[in-house]
Amino acid sequence: MNANLKRSRAPIFWVMFGGGGMLSALFGTALVFVTGIAAPLGWPFGPNLLSYERVLAFSQHWFGKGLLFALIWLFSYHAMHRIYHSLHDLGIPTGLAAKTVCYGGAFAITVVAAWKLLAIGF
Amino acid sequence: METFKADVAIVGAGGAGLRAAIAVAEADPTLSIALISKVYPMRSHTVAAEGGAAAVTQAHDSLEAHFHDTVAGGDWLCEQDVVQYFVGQAHEEMVQMEHWGCPWSRKADGHANVRAFGGMKIERTWFAADKTGFHMLHTLFQTSIKYPSIRRFDEHFCLDLVVDQGRVQGVVAIEIATGEFRLIQAKSVIIATGGAGRVFRENTNGGIVTGDGMAMAFRHGVPLRDMEFVQYHPTCMPVTGLLFTEACRGEGGFLLNKDGYRFLQDYGLGPAEDKPRNKFMELGPRDRLSQAIWHEKQKGRTLSDPRWGSYVHLDLRHLGEKKLRERLPQIYELAVEYLGVDPARQCIPVLPAVHYTMGGIAADGATAAPGVAGLYSAGECSSVGIHGANRLGSNSLTELLVFGKVAGVEAAAFAKSTPHANGDRIMKLALDAQARAAGIVTRMEGTERLATIRKEMAKSMEDGCGIYRTAQTMQATCDKLAELKQRYKNIRLDDKSKGWNTEWLLAIELGYLLDVAEAMAHSALNRRESRGSHQRLDGYEQRDDVNFLKHSLAYYQGADAAPRIDYGPVKITTSQPGTRAYGAAGEEADRKAKEAAHA
Amino acid sequence: MNHRATLRRGYVRPMQGWWRRDPFFVKYMIREVTALAVLVYAIILMVGVVRLSQGAEAFNGWLAALKTPGSILLHLVLLASMIVHAKSWFDIMPKTMPLMFVGGHRVEGSTITRTGYVVTIVATVLVLALVWGVRA
Amino acid sequence: MPEAQRIEIQVLRYRPEEEDKPVWQSYYVPFTNDMSVLQGLQYIKDELDGSVTFRWSCRMAICGSCGMMINGKPMLSCSTFLRDLLPGPVRVEALAHFPIERDLVVSVGEFVSKLEGIKPYIIPKEERELSQGEYLQTPEQLEQFEQFSSCINCMLCYAACPQFGLNPDFTGPGVLALLHRYNADSRDGGRAERMKIVNAEEGVWGCTAVGYCSEVCPKHVDPANAVNQNKVNSAKDFFLRFLSPKGATT
Ligand SMILES: Cc1cc2nc3c(=O)[nH]c(=O)nc-3n(C[C@H](O)[C@H](O)[C@H](O)COP(=O)(O)OP(=O)(O)OC[C@H]3O[C@@H](n4cnc5c(N)ncnc54)[C@H](O)[C@@H]3O)c2cc1C
Ligand code: SF4
Ligand code: F3S
Ligand code: FES
């Protein structure tokens, strides 16, 4: 049986999947609450939590930039990796097309985020 | 019929068969080996053994002590030269198993641990928690995969030996999945098909333990030796007969009657002390314990329950949950799952059930069968002579290894010295066997149900050849078996298919069971004494060394006749028959013996 | 080794709809579906970054969009999914780690899972406290 | 004896010599409180219909031959009790995800060849003669692999694992647990040879951590743990092989 076993390249994606999973498990809930619910509602952190100036300053700082990049990068790879496997689970053929859409999608999201974050400058 | 050629064919892939296969492969890698089993190897009944395997290990132990325990335990019906060899090889085989990966339980210093076992004077039983047989079997099976010369025929039901001109030439097997017949031609054959506990009703054995190999050899003229000696294990689960290992008592469990009294002290096994002491009380030999429970029942001192019948209590509560979970995890689960009893808090109901067949295919010290050249046997199916009239717990797993290896080495040597025989003659014999077996399915006019015959046989064996026996009950059993053999010719199967026709295989097995049962019942009837596990109540309550310090030998006399019972000598080297005494009396006897030796 | 003849066809049962067959599988599928929430959130963040890079007006548009009831509702769903995701992540955690022994005793899977829960709660409180510290 | 009650057992029958597709068949079985599903089937075979086919032997949950789907869940029929399934009917079906050969009998051959393929034997780290006695192994070292060595090859975990159902080439939980058993044994030095299997798509990477395998395992082997902790090992192997010419294997 193991004559033609090929080394899987899964580890590359799995490492990102794991990182994103851990990050989202630990911080996902809090982040969604802060950026998606608390900030728009202006409660309990006040109405200007995500004002342009503050967010710009945050993302110009190396730490803020890095954090935003890590979140978008790892979250998207985590999610796409799972979605890719779910397609397989649902019996949808997971050939090159599905692979391209999933991992390509995560790559695109990551690249756009990186490019724009760099464009924002330091 | 498809034919395969091998140098050595091994029927049975339990502990003995696997050990033999590895021994052949190691003896000479160029020999081809056919390993045939009606179940996948890891399903073999060795898997069920719980307690452990004996080998002299501790510094204060000695080969003589193991020898003496075994021979006295067997009520002097052992081949003493074979026992000598056995105790001498045991330790090396345990170490060999360790090197192959067997997860033996360990001491803190990393050495293998040993535990106490019934009838053994000093702790010498190697164990892997309470799944020793399981671990040994899986270790052997997995190790066997390493050897390319072992070709397995899994789920192949061996139907018959091919014997031509006094020499075994191979076996005929059925591939269960397809119903196809296979001739496996071989220069030597090792039978390692396990015991025959299924001839009895209440038993600890798996459904596959049907004495096939014994019956096959028997039908080809090889005598079955000492078949009357059937071991009852004292602590089994009511209704199912599932085993609670002797290790429960080795770890310090008590046996209690309905008054909560440790009744064994009334049967020469006392005094009752809190700590387990080797060869005292609960650590007495199995035959004595089972007999004591029988007596308690006669005296009305057992417990009873509509579900479980009459039983006694195995009390493990004082060992505490922690120790139980660590040392006896499987027992813990069995009790909870099957009986709803939590052993840390409640007593476990137990009763004796048939456990082991001491007798088997007659074999010399080199495992060779008399009269059929090239035929060897090992394991529970074989009577190589170490168990005598009563086996000591944990000697049999060791036997699988020691004599599995011997059989392998011997069969390999025989195969190397002999060419394959003429194929045509062998094929003709194989086709005869095929026709006989196929006839069972195609027969349309029968009326008997398989299960009815099987149940009547098991009931009758229990009634006639149980813990205590009389001529009258044994005769009734012999008569019943003769009747059942006739009715067996009239069975009718529901299943007419070729592939996976297990009903057909059950029918063939029933044929084996009936033959083995007859050998047991007639050997028992003819032994007019009490010895070891063979206990009579009809004027033969004593051991009779003058007339019966002999092996019984049952010879097949054809399908319609009862077996002929003959006798053969017992090899005595250093241990003259003495009193089998346990408890304080045993200690006293030991002391006297020592004094006598010094005087 | 397999020398089985033709009789051995073997009936292969279909897998269609397998994930509905057992509550355990349904739970698994729910766990996997939470990935969508993570993805959607990653995209929302990415869009935010894009808008940010396009200047104040663009970014304020993104903020305004976040304030729509539809967005709030979506984030409530995302919030719930994130909680499920976090829980299921730590539920499976013990399966992904080597056996651990502390003082000679095996660390139970449930201990690992519970530790995960606690760490998540601490992390969440920490984030909220931090944000509270910089609130405007 | 308590009043004999009857319980309906529905068996998924498949007789390839007679029919193309499995069909359900009902039997009524008198039962007592301590009767297992296996005993129910034995009653059927003995008394009602000798053609109903299933594997069994030990009756004590150790030989691993009697696994089947009982009311849709993979279980050992010898240690599943009818009393827990009242009032019935009880539906029994061959183990999921395996081809059915006949009635409750599935093909085991593929599983066994996978098992054979992982080198399930000690490849000694250092050779030792028998005369030198046993390898020393502390109880702690034993504990590192003991649970993984208690697999009875019942294949319930395969019937529980949808990834195996979707892709029969996936080595699967039980066999990977056995592989890990040898890798984790202090006496063994064969890890490098076995990593090839671990690293493959059909190895640990076929698993999506469903975890049901461990849930149904009757022997608490926790195969999901064996599989998933080896993803870490495989990932290390993947990245670290660039650091050492022979490939990293620890
Ligand atoms: C519950 C239990 C607990 C025990 N505990 C202990 C213990 O603690 N210590 C101890 O020393 N002993 C113990 N014993 C006894 C010991 O386990 C057995 O004697 C021993 O395992 C028998 O091994 P074997 O290899 O001879 O046969 P088995 O393991 O029974 O193997 C028989 C093999 O033969 C094959 N076979 C049989 N018939 C055919 C056929 N017609 N065609 C093809 N193949 C066939 C089977 O498939 C199987 O592979 C125990 C026994 C039982 C039942
Ligand atoms: S891991 Fe558990 S469920 Fe899987 S085969 Fe082994 S014992 Fe059975
Ligand atoms: S169920 Fe299957 S997917 Fe993995 S965790 Fe178990 S092997
Ligand atoms: S019959 Fe052996 S595991 Fe159920």
Give a short overview:
The complex is a heterotetramer of chains A (122), B (599), C (136) and D (250). Chain A has 122 residues and is mainly alpha-helical.
Q: Helix/strand-derived class of chain A?
A: mainly alpha
As a percent range, the share of helical residues of chain B equals 25-40%
Rg calculated over all Cα atoms of chain A? 18 Å
Quaternary organisation of the protein chains: heterotetramer
CATH superfamily of the domain at 231-355 in chain B: Succinate dehydrogenase/fumarate reductase flavoprotein, catalytic domain
Helix amount of chain A:
over 70%
Structural summary, described in words:
Chain A: InterPro entries: Fumarate_red_D, SQR/QFR_C/D. Chain A: This is Fumarate reductase subunit FrdD. Chain A: Keywords: Cell membrane, Membrane, Transmembrane, Transmembrane helix. Chain A: Pfam families: Fumarate_red_D. Chain A: The chain crosses the membrane at residues 12-42, 62-80, 101-120. The complex is a heterotetramer of chains A (122), B (599), C (136) and D (250). With 122 residues, chain A is an all-alpha fold. Helix content of chain A is 77%, strand content 0%. Chain A has one domain (15-119): Fumarate reductase/succinate dehydrogenase, transmembrane subunit (3 helical TM bundles of succinate and fumarate reductases). In chain A, helix 1 (10-41) packs across helix 3 (62-89), helix 2 (52-60) packs across helix 3 (62-89) and helix 3 (62-89) runs antiparallel to helix 4. Chain B has 599 residues and is an alpha/beta fold. Chain B is built from 16 helices and 22 strands. In chain B, a hairpin with a 3-residue loop joins strand 13 (303-305) and strand 14. In chain B, helix 1 runs parallel beside helix 10 (395-416) and helix 12 (450-464) packs parallel to helix 14. The mean pLDDT of chain B is 95. Chain C folds into two domains: 1-85, Fumarate reductase/succinate dehydrogenase, transmembrane subunit (3 helical TM bundles of succinate and fumarate reductases, Up-down Bundle); 97-136, no CATH class. Chain C has four helices and two strands; from the N terminus they run H-H-H-E-E-H. The termini of chain C are far apart. Chain D folds into two domains: 5-106, Beta-grasp domain (Ubiquitin-like (UB roll)); 109-243, Fumarate Reductase Iron-sulfur Protein, Chain B, domain 2 (Orthogonal Bundle). In chain D, 33% of the residues lie in helices and 14% in strands. Chain D has nine helices and seven strands; from the N terminus they run ββαβββββαααααααα. Chain D has a five-stranded mixed sheet with strand order 2-1-5-3-4. A two-stranded antiparallel sheet of chain D has the order 6-7. Chains in contact: A-C, A-D, B-C, B-D, C-D. Chains A and C meet through helix 1, helix 2, helix 3 and helix 4 of A and helix 1, helix 2, helix 3 and helix 4 of C. Bound molecules: flavin-adenine dinucleotide (FAD), iron/sulfur cluster, FE3-S4 cluster and FE2/S2 (inorganic) cluster. Flavin-adenine dinucleotide (FAD) binds at residues 11-17, 36-39, 41, 44-46, 48-53, 132-133, 157-158, 192-195, 204-205, 208-209, 212-213, 243, 245, 355-356, 379-381, 393-397, 400 of chain B. Flavin-adenine dinucleotide binds at residues 11-17, 36-39, 41, 44-46, 48-53, 132-133, 157-158, 192-195, 204-205, 208-209, 212-213, 243, 245, 355-356, 379-381, 393-397, 400 of chain B.
